[in-house]
């Protein structure tokens, strides 16, 4: 695919932004200033001040002499970059590949995007119109290279869209400053009689390098398309992603659901063809008021089932506020994994167990309702101590390294930490006759023999435990233990679990 780039130039970025925040400045000539060598130097002007001869780089005192009513405002360090980032994120509705072009522009990689708006002319017209409606004075251009688009946007006087392969001819009549040179270089070139780029084209590269340096040659080559220009995009491209522009703004839950299904069908078709499934998916909805809303889902195992993933997103649709309407949907899958070929059989199988797809889908839906952190699976762990004899599984399909111990009964609910109780028991090793837990007395009617559990050898400083399964007069069963021998001074009784 032939690469195409658009350059957007915000002619008065900071002053336009201030005017939007303070509408009274619209009819007032004003400038932004910053200290430089013990003088206040103008860093930005609004259009009214510019028309009256005020320009960037002038001393504020000289500007005040020209316009006595000139309003002077302190500059906002770092604000231009923040504004460009915000405007770049807004422009993602037109292309996912946007680069910040400090101090006052954006570079868009629009390859394969313009046809969605009916062609490059309508595409560029739409962007410029929307930005002007937001209150920014902008110029824009499209060309085969970022450098050529930048030059046409700022210095071009004819058509803003350069035909493919036409950047050389379009650049010839522009001044050398259109090559994005170092600040003093254009003035130097003018003194030498190079008033247009055409005057530099016929000179040998060795002579240009010797006279103007490697940086000059690089900028010239980038503009003409003879040298690569890597761009750093605002959001790194997600390998698995789909976009859905809307002809009319979407305002209903039904419309959002249809958009989600359309995106999932396209994304899952690609995933399935590559033998992959997604573990996470991120939906972003770009509203016409400039705000972005969305939702995300996660799965217990890689999936490319459209119906299953749609059900997960259905749980989130009511959290998406369309406001005046959504004009663009994007769906990204930042985390994908290989899917075993046997998965297709499992989708329709009636088998049971952890490999059953229905179980994974059920867990995904439950996680969407109550939160994934509230669903856990446990595997056995190498430890005699009950509270350390298990661990949380990392996934639904993780296999245990050891088997569960099944020699003696274990409670269905184990306390995270044993809790102290008061016990009455016959000595020396009889089970309790009664115990008091949280102020309630429990009279023991039945009890099993003691089960002694010793700590691991590296924990020998801790006393052993003698566990009892007991049943009170209400038929409730508990797991109690005595820490250490009954004659030890620090011997205590604890409750550690409950049987169903």
Provide a descriptive summary of the structure in words.
InterPro entries: DNA/RNA_pol_sf, Rev_trsase/Diguanyl_cyclase, SulA_CellDiv_inhibitor, UmuC. Residues 1-73 form the UmuC domain. Helix 6 (146-155) crosses helix 11 and helix 12 runs antiparallel to helix 13 (306-314). Helices cover 28% and strands 29% of the residues. It contains 15 helices and 21 strands. It is elongated and about 110 Å long. The model is unreliable at 343-349 (pLDDT under 50). Strands 14, 15, 16, 17, 18, 19, 20 and 21 form an eight-stranded antiparallel sheet that branches. It has a four-stranded antiparallel sheet with strand order 5-6-1-7, with helices on both faces. A four-stranded antiparallel sheet has the order 8-11-9-10. It folds into four domains: 5-155, MutS, DNA mismatch repair protein, domain I; 167-224; 241-345, 2-Layer Sandwich (Dna Ligase, domain 1), CATH 3.30.1490.100; 413-498, no CATH class. It is of the alpha+beta class and 500 residues long. Strand 2 (30-36) and strand 3 (39-45) form a beta hairpin.
